[in-house]
Amino acid sequence: MRLRSEGLLAEAADAFRKALDTCPDHLPSVVELGRTFYSQALMDDAIEQYNKALCLNPHDAVIHNNLGIVFQEQGRTDEAIAEFRKALELEPVFAIAHSNLLRCLNFHPGLDNAHLFEAHKSFETLYGSLRSPTQGFSNSRDPDRELRIGYVSPDLGNHSVAYFVTAVFLNHDRSRFKIFCYSDREKEDASSERIKSGVDVWRKTACMDDDTLFSLIRSDGIDILVDLAGHTGGNRLPLFARRPAPIQVSWLGYPNTTGLSAIDYRIVDDVSDTPGDADRYHSETLVRLPNGFLCFDAPLKAPEIKPLPLLRNGFVTFGSFNALAKITDEAVALWSRILARVPRSRILFKNKCLFDESTRNRMFDRFAVQGINSERIMMTPFTMTTEEHLASYGHLDISLDTFPYNGTTTTCESLWMGVPVVGLLGNRHASRVTASILTRVGLDSLVAKGA
Question: What stretch(es) of the chain map to CATH 3.40.50.2000?
Fold first, then answer.
């Protein structure tokens, strides 16, 4: 495990293999080898190990949760949902699996807003009672004092969230607000350091349990506590359920309600969440910012924008660099219609999971069902640096947005690199983010109202 935590994945895999040579049924080694394969984007190998682990112990909720994560990364949403539900069946109070299930439901095109809201309310059922009924706050009510704002996130580093929070931190009015960050990120990097320069107090909290962090936030006298994760990985929603601050807000990291009554507000805008319709499906009060709910911080080392690929290729290249879980069968069917209508056109996908051969073949098969041969499907896996990643947009003429779960970072990256994004307007936040972004930059004509 130490080797894996240090990024020495091949060495870690070898160590676990040697352990299994000695004791083939050693369950911890089987599970850890599966986790290592997942970190290497060897998805089928990870699945094989987790299935072996479940043969050894079919009642282990953690293994079912881990298997669900792999299926989700591969875009196998129904199978992922089944594994998360099995984990919760075995261990009903399993907050990580519960959040994973809720997040995964957002990818499913067959679920309406009412169903999603009911599912999210189940989180309140389990965790809403964590707050003490006698708990009070001693924060001063002096209207002239500086307010203490705390942000809680596992993603304050080289992560998509940093693209949208950094400029906010750097531009807070420090004469009126004192900014605290509770960073649940284990390894800090250059992005973390940049964020630090915009805050007053930086707390490293990755090793703190909820009890310790709750006491710390209370002792810091936080007035407004902001959740930046929602139901994404590494979240602290059970902590928020205990209400360590008098006002609590959710923003940015998650495209839906948290389901918790202890979170008072959610920050959105009037395009991402239309007044009336969206409000009824949230446990929070929606606060709509007049100029959009996102603030994209341009990459510091973005490469130059390349000439239009069509000019050198002689054909149009469409593309999507989104998570495979967002690429639904409905999206594949629509994109196949586009490819059929545009002679000689190609589509390029970029995702770390495409390093895995079976994952690539599954993508080829999905398009083959729609009559699109593999020669028109291009795939590229992981790139080592942000600069290399951004340079990859130079291979695209047009980005196609996913639905019903839109891109956010990928939409902004594509636009920054000079590649237009075409989106399809949906009826909930997850399927209206790209519309919000395009509207703010005067490109709402690229938002289709129907397929």
Answer: 309-448
Asked if the 147-288 domain carries CATH number 3.40.50.11380, the reply is: yes
Of 273, 230, 269, 272, nearest in space to 253 by CA: 230
CATH H superfamily, domain 309-448? Glycogen Phosphorylase B; (3.40.50.2000)
pLDDT (tens digit per residue) in 408-430: 999 999 999 999 999 999 999 99
Span 2-130 CATH architecture:
Alpha Horseshoe (1.25)
Indicate whether this model's pTM tops 0.90.
yes
